[in-house]
# Entry
Amino acid sequence: MKKLVRTVGLFLVVALAAGCFFACGSPAAGKSDTIRIGAIAPLTGENTLWGQILAETCEMRANEINESGGLLGKKIEIIRYDTRDDAVETTNAARKAIQQDGVVAFVGTESSTTTLALAEVCEELGVPFVATCASNLKITITEDGATRPYSFRSGLNDPQLGEVMAQYAVSVLGFKTMAIIYNIGQDYSMGIRQEFTKAFEAAGGAIVAEEAFNNGDVDFRSVLTKIKEYEGQFDAVYIASGYYKEIGLICNQMAELGMDYEVVTSDGAMAPDIFTLAGVNCEGLYFPTSVDIHNENSAAFVQRYIDAWDWDPTENAAADAFLANDAIEMIFAAIKAQGAADAESIRSGLEKLGTISGVTGNITMVAETHKTLREVPIYHIENQDYVQVDLFMPKE
# Structure
């Protein structure tokens, strides 16, 4: 009987300890010799390429840091989380990462829709993230204009991207009137279209026509035909899309319809497959990119990536690898500055980051708004090649 009591008592002690253990965090969360950072992005589905680049960049930098002794005497551990390019999947993955795996910061995601879902979880559970290509303003600023305390980015936001192209179109290219085609089902497209319109009009330009298409459309002739009704009333067409396939197909169909206009668009055009898709029809496009991929550090970075993963990440993914690198560097800099690697210390360090040097050049964090500042490269497609024609500093 005494033996049974002792056995039951021991069982209860173990059970209670286990309950506290899982309530307070998983075994991984309690490890003190590692700093767990989540790489959260689409790892399956149509946009896997971008998720792969984000995760591999983070792992490459973590391996390099670990080989040189780690941070604060600890090893960096990167854990991959699959958003499946879906807001609900992102929410579930982020909760697991924080509550079960002990992740103290995230890099990602790369799309605005999934990053907005991540922002809600991180704000609720008090863990910071640095977005890469996701550019919707609401990622860092709420509807009422407040700054989200746990949301940061390494790239530019939609107002910046839209403002840059609008200001450049008026002040440098001399366009005074514009027709716009945009994707009503894509947060990115809606964001840059809105800010382009505001900035274009503020600079003295006028929007003559606007037409929307739906996410997944491949035939844009009906939309373009409506815009063509205003022929002669606008100087150029702005294609507000984040995907090179949409941009390329629109250029093809504009040519079919005899619409011979200058075209300005987004950084989605920075994918060489657009030349296979659209050929001469995409000649002359102007577009901004978030980063200067031809700065003195970029070639060395790309070579390190090739050495690590045996492929070139810049072939069809624009600046994704560079922005992922800068995002993880921002987290590392925050940890070093704070001398601590808990979530709240990293958040504080990111907010106080000031200016650091990334692979894409200097990055300045505006503490009040979590806005990232940098000069914006402007590209022109010439002879089916990308030519950087300007480094443009937008007006505030």
